[in-house]
Specification:
The protein has 156 residues and is α/β, with parallel strands linked by helices. 29% of the residues lie in helices and 31% in strands. The radius of gyration is 23 Å and the shape is flat.
Length: 156
Amino acid sequence: MHRATVDLWVGVFVTVGFLGLLFLAFKVGSASNFSASDGYVVTAEFDNIGGLKVKAPVKSAGVVVGRVESIVFNNHSLRATVSMRIGKKFEFPKDSSVSVLTAGLLGEQYVGLDGGGDIDLLADGDKIVLTQSAMVLEKVIGQFLFNKASESGSNN
C-alpha cells in the first residue's frame, strides 16, 4: 500500500512538470503574436536571407514589432522577397531600413527594422528599399582565410 502511494505522487509530479513545460513552450512560441488583422504588411528584397524563417520576429530597438509572414524567391530580380506584418501600434517612416540579423553568434535570425527620418509613414503594401542582407558566417570565415593566405603568399 505504501509503494502505491509513492508511485501515485511521483506520477502526479511528473504530470504537473510535463504540463508546466508544455505551457511554457506554448507561451514562448506564441509570444507577441499578431493576428491577421492586427497591423500592416510591408515587403523588402534581400540578396541573401541566410536562415531566416517564416514567423521570425521583426525587431526595432530590441522590441518585437512584427513577424515575418512569408518568404518567396523573385525570379525576375533573383532576390528573396520577405513580407513582414508590423503591429498596427508601431509606426515607421517610409525611408526605414531593414536588415537580417542574428541573435548571438549562432542564434536564430530575425529582421531588424531601423526607422528613418521621413515624415510619411509606412502603410499596408509598401516596399522597404533600404535593405542589408544576412551576414553568412561561412563567407566571412572564407574571406578571412583567403586574405590570410594572400598575405602569407605575398610575403614569400
